[in-house]
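Sat 14:20. Reprocessing the chain from the morning session after the first attempt stalled halfway. Input below, unchanged.
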Amino acid sequence: MFTIGEFSKICMVTTKTLRHYDSIGLLRPSRTDTQTGYRYYEASQLRDLLFILKCKDYGFTLEQTSSLLHADPHTVAARFAAQYETCRADLCRRQSILVRLKNDIEVSKKGNDIMDIGNNGFTVIETKPMEIISVRDTIAIRDFDKLYGKVLRTLAEKGLRCEGVVCIYHCREFDPEHTDIEIGAIIPAKTPDSQTLAGGTYAMAAHFGPYDTLGETYASLVKWIEDNGYHITGEFYEKYLNSPHEVPAKDLVTEIYFPIAK
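Finished this time. Tokens:
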């Protein structure tokens, strides 16, 4: 057996951490002296501690780690696979941030304001009514693809052709965990199950690049609307000209539409 200090040195984990794992029942000592309170560990427990540290590196919480510590290999594989996808998505997001940060550094070095994206692509247009098959729900933003998938399945079931995708925001304020959105697939003609997205006068901006920078284009478009003597008359929507499943994030093209009037 090893004392807590010896066990700590072997695994390069502080005794404070080991005591914490003991207190929450994650890794209890093999034996605790009732007289002195000294903790003793067995060599077989090295595997458990190293597994805990591995899970920590992979981003699992201690509660999640506890459920995996003595799980069967198939369960571990499934949970690790899910965590892999989570980490991969986070890595892609961080890589996108690095690219944007580098670009902003270059713009700033030239003495330019990184928030001045100009008015390229801002215009007033008259849109025609569109027929859409849509699904509306209050969801977390990260679940956008799930709602999008429902729309695609509905189209497939009805044998309809998709000519584009729009997203209408019905929420009064932004809440990433509870967003009232409607995703609609544009179809060629009216059907008993479709609804009409009204046409009218809209201010439109084309956004080029990842979705997480849409806020900058939104802010510039709203200012442009105000500067040109218009006011917003209703709910805005986005129209996606491609998707992350088709092109890299830097090549995404999203049109933003605000209904306006003088």
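The chain has a mean pLDDT of 89.
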